[in-house]
User: What shape does this take?
Amino acid sequence: MSRSLFRFLLALTAVVAATPGRAQFESIEIDAGRFGFDTLARLAPNLYYRPFDMLGTRPDARALGMGSAYIAMADDPMAIGWTPSGIAMLEDFTLAVDGLNRSSSDTATGFPRVLQIPQSPELAISSYDSRLKSQTLYGSIAAGVPLIQRGSLKFVGGFSWRRYADVARAEETVQDFLLDQGGGFPVTVADDSKERGSVEAFGPTLALQVAPGISVGGTANFLTGRSRLTASTRVNTGGGGSPPPSTERFTQKYDGFSMDLGATVRLGDRLRLAGRLTPEYTLDVTGGSYEVVSSTGVGTSTIRVFGTLSGYELTIPSLLSLGAAIKPIDRLWLTADYVSQKMGDTGVVYTGAAAQSFQDVDVNWLTFENGPIPDAPGPEVPYADLTQLSFGAEYVLFDKSWGKIPVRFGYRSTELPYLAADSLDYSYRYAHVEAAEDGLPVDELSAFAVAQTIGVRYNGPNGQQPDGTGYSFGASFETDRVTYDLGVDVFSYEETEFYGDSVWDAIFNPNPDEGRRILYDDKGTPITPLGQHPNVVSLDRTVTTIRFSATYNFPGLF
Assistant: This one.
């Protein structure tokens, strides 16, 4: 549904305009009330199918250039985002900052070549382009300073503010159609999602060097953040008379607390081992205000759906990172990292007025869950277990009196921590089936002898887990006081999403069974097979991330 309501109304507009005595719709408002994840999956699949990504937020450009095989190499304030024990290497007050730009290129397959609007000529799709929006994002700011040193025993303190987990995914889709009407004229439908936000972490870090080459540390992460979506769908008919854009808005807030624990072992100047554990933690999510407004372009006709996603608690499973670095020859480091997080075990519990689950309630031709239903199982979210294996190399290309210039290369293989959209996640709801289930006598089913779609049911996540590979490179300019780092990562994977961001509408994702004649047995049970599911589009996606970092040393400042 969501912005696809607008497209659905395009079809209804054409039908009503052709009906004698009817010139326009009346405005419609639908109050979804407080709803749960099943309704969110039907109203706005773009807000449901998404990762909770704790890997893509880790600093910095140096790490990115090494394919994220970096935990054993982390030895400056940015180490807080990798293993807090890494800052034990600091000798002076040091400040580090970083940011990034992320964009993508995509190739889409599986979308229909022709759309049929009721009472109108066919629309032939001449192009379909979907991609992540280019975004420049903040990364981290971190500082560390030695506090106490007694022989080989050293305490180092730090503080950081950084992106902790990505929860937003801004996308844009542009489709070009050709209306075959006296030679044809173009029609363009553009979806623009200006989603932004993240879970942020701020807090102190303490690292202890317990013996030469051996350090441990911990970070207290106070978590906060917000996810905000402002999206629009615009239609350009090429000849004027384009309807006003539909708009979609969503916002929710995050609060929580977590700990990062780490250890690093340096065996001489040639071998380093390191690890990090983030124990299971709980994230409170509140707000969830949702609204979509669509216009038919006929008079003042509009449809508005609004409601609130119930507050909930996410129990995030523990994350484990292990890494090693070896220096086989002077100037060359080789690294390897392994990361694992059982995101498939993520727990979700509704809080506040709604609890556990919701019951379907029909509102016009939509269906929402409202409840609660006591003792029902908790909702499902499309998360999946995360694993990443990465390798990196750093070679000092120049080592002069004025500074060093190391270059880096990396590779990683990652299973992304979510399930992609799948057509099996939904099944259509039919008027005739609902009538039979309501116990109407067989002789009263004649009015439902033709399939009439009244909505969809959410069956739960059934999709495949995307996995991909990334290649990276980078370089630095290092002096005694200042270091500048640049890293570039190109990551490719395949996933699926619903065509037109819709699980069901009359134009972009119609039910192929609509209008079919249905046969019943003598008990009123339909015997005509009804097994259609919404269509999905396959995306071959390449995401390019460019990251820049700067580190400043201040000897003798403290």
